[in-house]
Amino acid sequence: MQQLLAIMQKLRRECPWDRQQTPLSLTPYAIEEAYEVEQAIQQGDPAEICEELGDLLLQVIFQAEMHAEQGLFDFQDVVAVLTQKLIRRHPHVFQAQVDDVDIQADDVAQVKALWQQIKQQERAGQAQSLLSAVKAGPALMQAQALQQQAAKVGFDFASVADAYGKLEEELGELQQAMQAQQSDEIREELGDCLFSLINVGRKMDISSEQALLATVAKFRQRFAYIEQQAAAQQKTLQQLDLFEMDQLWDQAKQQLKA
């Protein structure tokens, strides 16, 4: 680990690109690397997963080094804060009792409840909106997290059927906006449809982010099959018409299911 930190320090001194970076300029790379970790895990290649985890770790080290240069904190501080948080939020593992009261968390639901309880205690005295717990991130994840927070105080549909009814309502409004050819209204209604669809998934305990990522991975696999078959026919994709590509797509669905 010390060697890695030393390499990062050397890069900041001697590499023009690394030296030019700022905490803000580097944030898009952290997001990109996190998604590449997700993609590698979806593909299930251990070597690729290992490499992508390393790339993500680089973003942590890079940010820590830039902040260390400003005298704010360094990588060891990051590790210390994380270590303390993990111990503090897992009293059922690291402390059998607190103030002579047994702490029990025998299943996943109890662990989650205990985690949230400790988070609330840490934030005691801070005036916050219920939705302030939702952090910035991908829109799908934010939407689902906002819905989950609102549901905690009863602002929620009673059933999946009710949530689906709202989706149908929003789809109708999108269709009307499309017929009127109002681009701003179409964009707004499309967003409402997506939000409502995410809500349907949430009511069934489905992560829309994970569901969409799985579909993206599936699309990549099927499209790669089309490319492979076109190459086998000594054709480019541009030389295939839509009917031929549709046929290969259907073949891919069958082949990849087998």
From TrEMBL:
Q: Name one GO molecular function term.
A: nucleoside triphosphate diphosphatase activity
Q: Does the keyword tRNA-binding apply?
A: no
UniProt entry keywords in alphabetical sequence: Hydrolase
- Asked if Hydrolase is a keyword of the record, the answer is yes
Q: Where is the NTP pyrophosphohydrolase MazG-like domain?
A: 21-94, 167-222
Instruction: Set out the biological process GO terms recorded for this chain's protein.
Output: dATP catabolic process; dGTP catabolic process; dTTP catabolic process; dUTP catabolic process; response to stress; TTP catabolic process; UTP catabolic process
Q: Which domain of life is it from?
A: Bacteria
| Protein name stated in the entry | Nucleoside triphosphate pyrophosphohydrolase
Organism phylogeny: Bacteria, Pseudomonadati, Pseudomonadota, Gammaproteobacteria, Moraxellales
